[in-house]
Amino acid sequence: MKVFLAIFFLVSVVVADPPANMPVSVAAGGAVKAVNTNGSQVKGTVGQGLVKLSMNTSGDLHSGFWPSRHASAPLAVERVGATLPTEISFEAAYPNPFNPATQLSFSIPSASRVTLNLFDVTGRVIATLADDQFQAGSYAVTWNAESFASGTYFARLETAGFTHTQKLVYLK
Q: Which CATH superfamily includes the segment(s) 78-170?
């Protein structure tokens, strides 16, 4: 096991070696984040195996459990149905488990601010699907998780004193 860890750390240093002008700092718990003057960042966690590599058009490289909050394309929340709901609801995501996209639906009986956030298993917000004032009605938003690691996520809807969280399972 010690040999494996030594090889893993050596390969990690060779593969993810930042430029010489990039200062590195380590936080307790085994995390590292390095930023240079042009805004380039290298992030990692000790013991975290490589999960996925991807690059978007802005040159951002994402891997493991630290995906960018803006890694996926902008989302559109669509109004669905013509009748007005009589109560607040947050329907079960469909499909769930999903690959690579799932639809989240909610209804509000009166105009109010709605926030729909996605969290990873550590409780970190990984995406905000909705954060706006909505008119009364039923709405649906599709989350495409292609740029995220497979695993368990949580969707939390907050509006007008109503908070509901549901578990989402992304299987690749």
A: Macroglobulin (MG2) domain (2.60.40.1930)
